[in-house]
Amino acid sequence: MSETTPAAEAAAPHRYTAALAADIESRWQDFWEQNQTFAAPNPTGDLAGDGELAKPKKFIMDMFPYPSGAGLHVGHPLGYIATDVFARFQRMTGHNVLHTLGFDAFGLPAEQHAVQTGEHPRVTTEAAMNNMRSQLRRLGLGHDKRRSFATIDPDYYKWTQWIFLQIFNSWYDPQADRARPIAELVEQYEKGERPTPDGRAWAELTPAERDAVLGEYRLAYASESPVNWCPGLGTVLANEEVTADGRSERGNFPVFKAKLRQWMMRITAYADRLLADLDALDWPEAIKLQQRNWIGRSEGAKVDFAVEGHGDTPVTVFTTRPDTLFGATYMVLAPEHPLVDTVVPAAWPEGAKDAWTGGAATPAEAVAEYRKQAQAKSDVERQTEGKNKTGVFSGAYAVNPLTGTRIPVFVADYVLMGYGTGAIMAVPGQDERDWEFATVFDLPIIRTVRPPEGWEGEAYTGQGPAINSANDEIDLNGLEVADAKRKVIAYLEQRGIGEGTINYRLRDWLFSRQRYWGEPFPIVYDEDGVAHALPESMLPLELPEVEDYSPRTFDPDDADTEPETPLSRNASWVHVELDLGDGRGVRRYRRETNTMPNWAGSCWYELRYLDPHNDRKLVDPEIERYWMGPREGQPHGGVDLYVGGAEHAVLHLLYARFWSKVLFDLGHVSSAEPFHKLFNQGMIQAYVYRDSRGFPVPAAEAEERDGGHWYGGEQVKRELGKMGKSLKNAVTPDEIAAEYGADTLRLYEMAMGPLDVSRPWDTRAVVGQYRLLQRLWRNVVDETTGEVTVTDAEPDESTLRALHKAIEGVRQDLEGLRFNTAIAKITELNNHLTKVGGPVPRSVAEPLVLLIAPLAPHIAEELWRRLGHDGSLAHEDLPVADPAYVVDEAVTCVVQIKGKIKARLEVPPTISEADLEAQALADPAVVAALDGAGVRKVIVRAPKLVNIVPA
């Protein structure tokens, strides 16, 4: 515990205690704020300045925090403290540093509170933000507060809406490989340079027909799309909001697949660029791999399979293994595939096995029942490997285009409409899932790649020569996979039944939510249902007041329902008369009543940090180029350091990259990537104590005794897990700051281990860093008088070596985000000074204070002031090591003969191998040990080892 006895306080009234720390920290936080110590100047605009602009810049960011009503626990600030340490280090090494923090403030918790209480979500959100600001201020974070904002601010989401309109009014030109204004596409149609789908002139098309044509190109478009519909919540859910068992993460309601008209973002147009540009980013390889897998680029072929009785409607499949086409013994359509209804016959054909029909009287009845079952499953559940495969025969047969064999067409949920074409040719000999399905439904299995000898009872997915793969026109037998692929693709293209193609796992981004608390779409619809963009002069389109914040809910099990949004109930807001400035005058319109997803505001917030008060442009081009433009080592530009959790690998990070590329293509920014360097911090974990029912009990009240853990007289189980209010193990930063001071908390979180690994919280261990600060204080300040005790005497050589080794090591560690080892080196130097005793030389005390300043800034500022300096040390130069004192003066070299030590030499650490060999052979002890024998070989490992092998 940090408290001291009254007697101890009387004896050392100027001791560094929690009370003194609180006073120091509060005063310096006020000073920083009043003096705008961390204000970073811009090259132009209302934040312009010239004091720091000659220095190299550093833009350092944390992932956007959501202002939770529960406030912060000690796990939350881990990344914020780390970026603050790094930002302070960069300022002290000569950089103009932009470091600030805003709030990603649209979100479900505040909306749910509004649903339950009727209180506007803005009220609770702003209260949560104020609480979080207070908690973060107490940690001493050096943010440029002039640049902070929240996504719920209308002057912020004005530009979110503006960006949406840029995307809506753009199309992707594959020839130019970039986005272009939709007006340029319209001009091509008007001039006849691009034919309309039915060949009519553009002027002959109705407005609705033109809108439909352009909708096939727009980067933001409305579409009938398969979505996760949750009647129990009355809203569509993103994939990440659905659990593996097909239920809503919030409320645990059933989630169904349904087709609804939704706004989509055509992120798939950027798939290749999103992949290619990963190579130049300084990101963890694990995150790059997740993005590559999510985009899922695969090369293969599309192949047409004719369906009996439906000669003009073949089923097209995409396969990465066209070389296995001879082994396709059945086909599978996803339950949502549009051709299912087309190919299903009125009655079962002869030969349909009972196992194929599900006991239904007709194919239509069997398929309808199966679709209902599949609708209740999530994509994750449908794709789970190793589960028993389910499906039903459609009643239709297709024809294998290479063998002419009649093969049954099944409907099965292990095929997804969102990948490939939603249909597969099933080759059980070469695919594990197809093998499992074929085994369940007693379907033929033909191997088309020779497996290793003795391989039986399962699919073979490896390499090998083709077998069973020939007809009268093409023979693949004996070819390796790559050669067989090339040959069969050429054959398919020659016959017009297939073509080589590239496929992606990435799907277009569902961009609609049936909620209130989100950005309204700046879109209105005319009487023909045509979507029109609001002019920029009408932005921001603000959220209206509504009487009820909850979407209409339905029977949780009733999939045949559709959303009714809170905005749709405000008729005076929905139905409006507007002049859109398009020459048509005042017309009556209907507003879009969905809102944007909570990802929207975080797709571009790095740009708002640059120029937060600009009400004329998204961002001033000169400011954007200065902070984020391309430069040596950063060919796509972007933020210099972005720190946050790995859980955002394929959602926020991918979406933000997409928006950046669109804005880059349209000339609004010079940076094609938002974040050049990404660092994923680990998680602070905590022990959870559970009673016999499995319920958490208060961790602070659990006792350890008799080899177990106890609470209220009952033995409880302890496990390491997340920290949180619901787990009753949360510790707030306010508690630790009150007990030890914020600097101690900062040091402890940075010293717990490498920043990128998870670590367990232990309140009892915090005292170790508290004692470090107390020893540091005592090395500068007399605890009895409060006077500074440093001396102007020169330090001895051992102290100089300790100091400069610490300077060198700490600088390297802070640059590499190795804060735990930097603290260890500072501790070692501080302990050295304590051990030497006596007054500490000023020439050592001041560098020591500067070294710890990025990590424990409040105590460093206070000691710097007491050492006689004015102002803040935030922009002081970090000490630079003298190389003469960093290198050890001499090291001990061991000389061995036949593996036995014969001599020890004191040599310079930089000695060459030749000089070391000569010195070893000349040593009297070595000469005596050799006793005239010749030397066959000398192995030198300078400067520490010489091994001599006698002749």
Features:
951 residues, Isoleucyl-tRNA Synthetase, domain 2, 31 strands, globular
In short:
This protein is of the alpha+beta class and 951 residues long. It is built from 30 helices and 31 strands. Among the domains are: 171-292 and 509-516 and 528-582, no CATH class; 298-503, Valyl/Leucyl/Isoleucyl-tRNA synthetase, editing domain (Isoleucyl-tRNA Synthetase, domain 2, Alpha-Beta Complex), CATH 3.90.740; 888-950, Roll (Ubiquitin-like (UB roll)), CATH 3.10.20.
Describe the model:
The protein is α+β, with helices and mostly antiparallel strands and 951 residues long. Among the domains are: 171-292 and 509-516 and 528-582, no CATH class; 298-503, Isoleucyl-tRNA Synthetase, domain 2 (Alpha-Beta Complex), CATH 3.90.740.10; 888-950, Ubiquitin-like (UB roll) (Roll), CATH 3.10.20.590. Helices cover 32% and strands 18% of the residues. It contains 30 helices and 31 strands. It starts with 5 loop residues before the first helix and ends with a strand. The model has no long low-confidence stretch (mean pLDDT 93).
